[in-house]
Amino acid sequence: MAQSARDIAAEAEQIALFLDFDGTLVEIAPSPEDVQLDRRVAPALESLRTQLGGALALVSGRPIAFLDEMLAPHRFDIAGLHGAQIRIGGDLRAQSDAPENMREAVRDLVRFANGHVGIIVEDKRISVALHWRLAPALKDEALDLMRKAAARLGPGVRLQEGKSVAEIVPAGASKGNAIAWLMATPVYAGRRPVFIGDDITDEDGFEAVNAMGGLSIRIGADRDSLAAIRLASPTALRHILVEAAENGGLTASSFSQN
């Protein structure tokens, strides 16, 4: 079948690629430190960044330092901690301050974790996450604790819920805001944003790229989403990224054809 002019234009357009990490580039693990990155991914991302003129960034709830360690020796543009940290071109361009009384909140969460098997506290300094993947029966109690902690910290923070996790983050930090910030910089400006994520925490990113006329992609089909299209799993995404890195020509249509 002959391609329409619109199809040809869509294939030729330049994209800016934004990628979540957990549940997107890697499978969700029982605890945050147990994730495993396919050895092909970081070199593939390096190749794709070159193809895209530098317009490739990770947009993750993880700290920048953790992502650098996982992707070493490669270093990418990153919006870490849900946008509370943003590094572009090797320079840290934006970083939120840790909310007041965060250390006190962390101590309360650690006490809870110490008394409940399977609860994990992930202290990211600027934010803090409480995981109950290994203790699903404690979800309601864990959420209640996080909601009370966020309320005590006040309007400078917000509570963000995800898959078996809740996180207290700076109020202004979100993946949607981070993508919008990056899209206003010279390397990304004028391109069509493509954002790929898997969780509730990615929905504001999907909303942002949809508003920009971009492409939102959700990994998995486990819940309703603002994402325009779905991919079955991180494995399916890795296949697309590695193939595009080897053969060139990554466009928005690379994802919709799978």
Write structural notes for this entry.
It is a single chain. The chain is of the alpha/beta class. The chain has two domains: 5-96 and 173-256, HAD superfamily/HAD-like (Rossmann fold, 3-Layer(aba) Sandwich), CATH 3.40.50; 102-170, 2-Layer Sandwich (Alpha-Beta Plaits). The protein contains nine helices and twelve strands. It has helices at 5-12, 41-51, 64-71, 102-114, 139-153, 175-183, 203-211, 234-247, 253-256; strands at 15-19, 56-59, 77-80, 85-88, 91-95, 120-123, 128-131, 157-162, 165-170, 192-197, 215-219, 229-231. It has an eight-stranded mixed beta sheet, sandwiched between helices. A hairpin with a 4-residue loop joins strand 6 (120-123) and strand 7 (128-131). Helix 2 packs across helix 8 (234-247), helix 4 (102-114) packs antiparallel against helix 5 (139-153) and helix 6 packs parallel to helix 7. It is globular. Mean pLDDT is 91; it is low at 1-12.
Within the largest sheet, what's the order of strands? 5-4-3-2-1-10-11-12
Q: Rg to the nearest angstrom?
A: 18 Å
The main sheet comes to: 8 strands, mixed
Second-tier CATH architecture of the largest domain: 3-Layer(aba) Sandwich
3D shape: globular
Fold-level CATH name of the largest domain: Rossmann fold
Number of E-type strands: 12
Low-confidence stretches: 1-12
How many individual domains?
2
CATH first level of the largest domain: which class?
Alpha Beta
How does the helix and strand content classify structurally?
alpha/beta
- What is the CATH homology-level superfamily of the largest domain? HAD superfamily/HAD-like
H/E series:
HEHEHEEEHEEHEEHEHEEHH
Q: If helices are DSSP runs of H or I spanning 4 or more residues, what is the number of helices? A: 9
